[in-house]
């Protein structure tokens, strides 16, 4: 996916960028990414380029399959990649974002790397309570899908995955509910999980993604 983004980002940005931004003709940058097959880990919107943290110490808490049967995930830092593309507007501003005002970007693209192509995720994180974040985050997720699907190549690649999911994770006090067996085989704490709230917005439904607001992401095997 990162190699596809390297090539396809030129056409994507030319389609959505500010009117005074020069047309892009080539790109040599690829997005930063990390890989993990850990069964439990957290995601954070980090400034040090390392988005993975110990379980339940960050913003989004991943339970990746089962203890001895996990997914091999690649986590692409999409927001950081997009915001690398700037231009000099000739008016004393050397690093102006190519994105039009109001265009939003989600933090991460996450996908399972095997040939089974089980899961593709667009994930937005926030340290704010979800009640203050949800409207902005919905647009971030929708706008990101709009950007990605500007490329026919990327659109076909994403659509080849079995599950297409969007997640918003924020630090809040969402009530806990019984996991109804979903946590069987885990420690006692996983007998309850935060209740995911499903939502739809803009391009999310258009491109047949399912979207959830939750701090715990359980990738079922």
Give a quick summary of the entry.
The chain has 221 residues and is of the alpha+beta class. It has helices at residues 2-16, 78-82, 130-148, 152-159, 203-206, and strands spanning 33-36, 40-43, 52-53, 60-64, 73-77, 86-87, 96-97, 108-112, 119-126, 163-170, 176-178, 192-194, 197-199, 210-213, 216-219. The strands form 4 sheets. It has a 7-stranded mixed β-sheet.
List keywords for this structure.
221 residues; alpha+beta; seven-stranded mixed beta sheet; four-stranded mixed beta sheet; 5 helices; 23% helix; 28% strand
Q: Would you give an account of this structure?
A:
The chain has about 220 residues and is an alpha+beta fold. Helices cover about 25% and strands about 30% of the residues. The strands form 4 sheets. A 7-stranded mixed β-sheet has the order 1-5-8-9-10-14-13. Strands 3-2-4-15 form a 4-stranded mixed β-sheet, with no helix packed on it. The longest helix is centred in the middle third of the chain and has 19 residues, at about 130-150. Mean pLDDT is about 85; it is low at about 175-195.
Give the tally of β-strands: 15
The succession of helices and strands, N to C, reads: HEEEEEHEEEEHHEEEEHEE
Q: Cα distance, first to last residue?
A: 23 Å
The SS-based structural class is alpha+beta
Biggest sheet, in brief? 7 strands, mixed
Query: Number of DSSP helices?
Result: 5
Which regions have little confidence, pLDDT < 50, spanning 5+ residues? Answer: 175-193
Task: Give the overall shape.
Answer: globular
**In percent terms, what proportion of residues is strand?**
25-35%
State the strand order across the main sheet. 1-5-8-9-10-14-13
Q: What Rg do the Cα atoms give?
A: 18 Å
What is the residue-mean pLDDT, rounded to a whole number? 87
Give the proportion of residues in helices: 10-25%
């Amino acid at each position: 996916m990162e190699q596809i983004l390297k090539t396809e980002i030129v056409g994507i940005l030319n389609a959505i960028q500010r009117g005074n931004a020069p047309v892009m003709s080539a790109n040599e940058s690829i997005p930063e990414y990390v890989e993990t097959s850990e069964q439990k880990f957290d995601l954070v919107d980090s400034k040090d380029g390392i988005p993975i943290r110990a379980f339940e110490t960050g913003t989004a808490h991943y339970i990746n399959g089962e203890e001895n049967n996990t997914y091999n995930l690649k986590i692409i830092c999409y927001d950081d990649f997009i915001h690398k593309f700037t231009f000099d507007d000739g008016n004393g501003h050397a690093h102006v974002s190519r994105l039009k005002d109001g265009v939003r970007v989600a933090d991460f693209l996450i996908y399972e790397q095997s040939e089974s192509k089980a899961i593709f995720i667009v994930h937005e994180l926030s340290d704010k309570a979800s009640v203050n974040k949800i409207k902005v985050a919905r647009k971030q997720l929708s706008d990101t899908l709009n950007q990605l699907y500007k490329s026919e190549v990327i659109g076909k690649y994403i659509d080849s995955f079995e599950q297409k999911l969007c997640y918003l994770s924020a630090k809040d006090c969402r009530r806990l509910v019984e996991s109804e067996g979903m946590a069987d085989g885990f420690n006692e704490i996983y007998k309850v999980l935060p209740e995911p709230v499903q939502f739809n917005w803009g391009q999310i439904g258009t491109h047949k993604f399912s979207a959830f607001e939750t701090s715990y992401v359980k990738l079922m095997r």
